[in-house]
Amino acid sequence: MIRAAELIEQKRNGGEHDPEELAELILAYARDEVPDYQMAAWCMAVYFNGLTAAETHALTDAMVRSGETLDLAAALGRKVVDKHSTGGVGDKTSIAVGPIVAACGVPFGKMSGRGLGHTGGTLDKLESIPGYRVELTTDELVAQVRAVGMAIVGQTAALVPADKKLYALRDVTATVDITSLIASSIMSKKLAAGAQAIVLDVKVGDGAFMKTLEDARALAELMREAGTRAGREVTCLLTDMDQPLGRAVGNALEIHEARDTVRGDGPADFTELVLDASARLLAYSDLGVDLHEGRDRAEAAVADGSALEVYERWIRAQGGEPDPAVLERAPVRRPVQAPRDGVVTRLGARAVGTVALELGAGRRMKGDPVDHAVGVLCFAKRGDTVLAGDDLAEVHARDETAADRAVTAVLAAYEFGDSSLPEHGIVLDVVG
Ligand code: URA
Asked: Which residue's alpha carbon is nearest to atom 6 within ligand 1?
């Protein structure tokens, strides 16, 4: 019988778990033998006292062992590459990267997650497409990747069930932003899904779980080490999350923007990240291209329409309708106008993510429904010059009261100055 209360006490008092005992706690939780309230207390103890590298690796291994593993590479007879993000605001990167990479001939079979706190989740975004099925069996997943080149699915119940439970619990107990728990959550899924090479998008800034480059680097190193220990190649991109990525924040709005980007009509920062991540995945693949050639091929797939074709085939294969006209539109749309002339010096990502959450685009409680239509479009971003009265953003809301609140909150997320700012790209650093 697992002594969960003793392990909670040990971690509360700053002690270090024996790896076997930690593994037993995680495996027992996955078997429903430890209740959520005890795991929530343990997560909070970890929040304050952390996990050592040895504990983090034991946790990652136990998460992988909590369920089945998948060998996509063996099933497809190809080297399999994968990507994952640590979570941000307006982060629809996988939805655009998948079709580009697949259009270049590299299979892309990805398991994604749901929204966490003020950050959105790829599955919630995809479910705003009427008919889209996030749950495929392993056989369906493999068959679809063979036929269409790609699939994005929910984590099956059988794969890393411990993370599935823990992820949802952390979301509603303020225990998401812990380096060791994020590293083990992400890496256990990547290792169990069988990718041989992994590109991790580690978000840094106000809207990310990692607020500083230093913390993001520590997370990146931890994940790389977990990958290397398991014989996988891992590269981490540290990317800017001080402002929302692209313009759209909110499920259906982000699907629109991801599709626009796949056809070469996306916002500059988002397009840059999508092409960079795609190029790295191609360079890791069995195509035998370097990063430069990978970038050229990714750009070509966007320019010649082949990425859009894959996007449409993929969405149809998963039961959805790719025409963006079918996406639900919010009944109330309101502009947010610039109060003065000037340069946008700041657009708080966390604040915008929280507005979207409050409009209903995310969950407050485990199992809450998500409103797919609502969100925010941010037209003016850091460094843009605006005139008083210009539309900075547009709020998409379910009703007038929610719209009123959101307009005020989005305006408060903006700061203005009188002179232009030093520019930096979306990719701040690369680890690995
Ligand atoms: N993404 C994950 O998959 N897990 C986390 O803990 C955070 C972001």
From this structure: 182
Q: What percent of the chain has pLDDT over 70?
A: 99
Q: Does position 17 have pLDDT exceeding 70, yes or no?
A: yes
Query: For atom 1 of ligand 1, which residue has the closest CA?
Result: 86
User: Rounded to whole angstroms, how far apart are CA atoms 32 and 165?
Assistant: 10
DSSP run (H or E) holding 405: helix 400-413
- 98 alpha carbon to ligand 1 midpoint, in Å? 19
Would you say the pTM of this structure is higher than 0.85?
Answer: yes
Match domain 72-325 to its CATH number in 3.10.150.10, 3.40.50.720, 3.40.1030.10, 1.10.357.10.
3.40.1030.10
User: For residue 112, how far is its CA from the centre of ligand 1 (angstroms)?
Assistant: 10
Asked whether the beta carbons of 174 and 217 are under 8 A apart, the reply is no
- CATH code linked to domain 4-50: 1.20.970.10
CATH architecture of 328-417: Alpha-Beta Complex (3.90)
* pLDDT-derived band at 366, boundaries 50, 70, 90: low
Alpha-carbon span 356 to 373, nearest angstrom = 10
